[in-house]
Amino acid sequence: MKHPSIRALFDYWEERRGGRMMPERAEIEPGAIRRALADTFILSFEPGMGHPFRLAGTRVCALFGREVKGEAFVHLFAHGARRELRELLAIIAEECIGMVASASEVGETTTSVELILLPLSHQGGNGTARFLGALAPNGPPHWLGSRILGALALGTYRFLGHTRAIPAMAQITAGGARPNLVVYDGGRR
Fold this sequence. Notes:
- It is built from three helices and six strands.
- It has about 190 residues and is an alpha+beta fold.
- Strands 2-1-5-4-3-6 form a six-stranded antiparallel sheet, sandwiched between helices.
């Protein structure tokens, strides 16, 4: 995490969630993240609608030259990146983990942004209902105001936070049989 807004938002999310999988949407206090607020947004968990923006900070809107509230988040990305982004959002929701990623304008190497996506529950629900995120330019956006960002290409990404406890794999013992499992001796020692 390079951008101060991205780091601040992640630290705040970690603090709010405590020992839980994710914090509640109602626990997010805008005043507590005021320095990152312009880069911050909230998405609905609506896969069929492309995860529309519920709220978007002023710098997020300025990057695209318009109010993005109500627009599908995945439509900010090039067609080739949308499927992967939908899959990543599903992983974030299912595993209750965050993700930080880089993205750049298609065909441009100088206009890159950093992105963070963090799950939120809503009104006591167990599943993800919202995503808290931020989108911030890497370096001073000298171009901001003179042009807008075009479609984004997803760059590298990594997941953040703890994942749900995964049951330990069953031990395979010599001579033991397990239904539907066949172990072939490959000859390597």
